[in-house]
Known about the structure:
With 330 residues, the protein is an alpha+beta fold. The chain has two domains: 7-194, Fructose-1,6-Bisphosphatase, Chain A, domain 1 (2-Layer Sandwich), CATH 3.30.540; 205-325, D-Maltodextrin-Binding Protein, domain 2 (3-Layer(aba) Sandwich), CATH 3.40.190. The chain contains eight helices and 13 strands. It has an eight-stranded mixed β-sheet with strand order 2-1-3-4-5-6-7-8, with helices on both faces. Strands 10-9-11-13-12 form a five-stranded mixed β-sheet, sandwiched between helices. Helix 2 (24-45) runs antiparallel to helix 3. The radius of gyration is 20 Å and the shape is globular. Mean pLDDT is 91; it is low at 51-55. 2,5-anhydro-1,6-di-O-phosphono-D-mannitol binds next to helix 6.
Amino acid sequence: MELGTTLTRFIIAQQRKYPGASGDFSGLLAAIATAGKVISHEVNKAGLIDILGYKGKKNIHGEEVQKLDDFTNKVFMRTLSHTGHLVGIASEEMDDIYQIPEEYPKGKYVFLMDPLDGSSNIDVNISIGSIFSIYRRKSQGPLAEMSDFLQAGRHQVCAGYLIYGSSTMLVYTTGYGVHGFTLDPGIGEFLLSHEGIQMPDRGGIYSINESYTSQWSGGIKAYIEHAKGEKKTARYVGSLVADFHRNLLKGGIYIYPGDKKNPNGKLRLLYEAAPLAFIAEQAKGYASDGQTAMMDIVPKSLHQRVPLFIGSAHDVRQAEHYMSKIDNPS
Ligand code: AHM
């Protein structure tokens, strides 16, 4: 489609093109885009906090200032609750499942999110993001059940992220390729800027926090030496969305491994790893926990952590090869 196509027009065109594509997503994606605009506006003001005289939890007018991660969580909840497409929401910011209130119509999907990923980067003006994932519910009663959320990534019907960087972008897949839209702040619309994104099979970048080298397994150490030998260069922002987005467009591998201290790593299967794995696979990339395809891992709990290897397919397979050869020789 031509550049400058709005998100809404693109979704409608996709529905016509793929008869299997559900119209339900137009409503949901429109709501996600609205939440993204509100959050983007707020994130862009974060740097003004000192200038405007915010102190602690109060602003100069004595009003409570919300932490940005609470704020983003609430924006998504408010914007999505009344769409009529959801029965429940789970968030990295909430301990338990949120049930869509009685007064709203309910639908057949559940929504999962990391509303503000990379929050330690807000104060220093580095890109941050929001990650989301949608599953068709399995249960049939009036309330969402845990089994609706604890599904393997392979069952996702939509996944995406918003990145609040030098511009704000929405990148998503419904299983028909990966498409990116850039927010034009002048007109407040997400415009198609990256249609049918495909990840190079091999990349020139590796992204891992090397300060943890002493904690790494032999397999990780060997793979990173291999990556350096291939003349890959290191890039690590410390915001997963930003590191993933760069590697999606340029090719590369992002690793947050398990280590001696945290065998399951740091990142969350349902809110971070599975949605990005869906996007990676749709863009011809790949993601795994070092052994098993991320999309095939069945979660045991809502906030489960998982080691993450994601990016260019060849590079991730290569890392898996080192992991199995050195860490799990048969
Ligand atoms: P957060 O949920 O506290 O934002 O942590 C997630 C972030 C990722 O965005 C990032 O890739 C990773 O943590 C960085 O962790 P580390 O500082 O350990 O390298």
